[in-house]
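[agent] plan:
  1. take the single chain provided in the ticket
  2. run structure prediction with default settings
  3. attach structure tokens to the ticket
  4. add a short note for the reviewer (M.T.)
[agent] executing step 1
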Amino acid sequence: MSQSPSLPRQIALDLGHTPKPTLDNFIATGNENLMAVLKDIQRTWQGSKDESTFNAALNTDTKMIHLWGPSGSGRTHLLSALQLQASELGINAYLLNHDSSMDEWRACADALTENNQAPGLLCVDDIDHLSEFAQGALFRLHNLIREASHQHLITSSLAPSSNLQIREDLKTRLVWGLVFQMHALSDSEKLQALQQAATERGLQISNEVAPWLLKHFHRDMPSLMSLLEALDNYSLETKRAITLPLLKEMLAQKN
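[agent] step 2 finished; step 3 output follows
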């Protein structure tokens, strides 16, 4: 059966699709100091073709950063955002975790060693779940990157390094640079963020929409923002106000 011409075309949007992670679409509440450091790194990459910027070697405390915090605090979002940004700028960038193969760890080490005078980035997520081999590889990479001039190493874990069940010599390296505890948004802060995003779009949403989303939809902010965008489009197509019935109708159409 052909689709009714009155059915809004935005219904085809994959509501389960999470937008590409960036520093700009990360809600920084509670993590402002960390975001300032990461945006400084981003600006350094963007200016890496400036000879005076490039020739200034990085300090150890800014090129090695460890993030820790609870699930949902955005650790993976930030690492993915940095890796994508660096790659788009033509910088050797790698994102590894406990699922990465031995070959991927070796390839990363080889590439960073061969290009140790060029900007580079290694992000390692969930180091508290790394195998013995991966822990050894990360230990060696800490040493390599410490000696390099323009490479960053950013790691993340669920708990502070002192509580991690990892090799002791790796623990000491996690505090070579900056350490940040990441804070997850509370439900009230998520509601405020959704309301702020709606206001910035010029949207007026009924009071029950945002709380319903937190209760019944994905609770991470990128997914919530993706749904808000879909709801904005659906509202424009149907020429109706954003209310809870409209939201439920949109989701029912998708399903």
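[agent] step 4 note for reviewer: Residues 185-254 form a domain with the Helicase, Ruva Protein; domain 3 fold (CATH 1.10.8.60).
[agent] ticket updated
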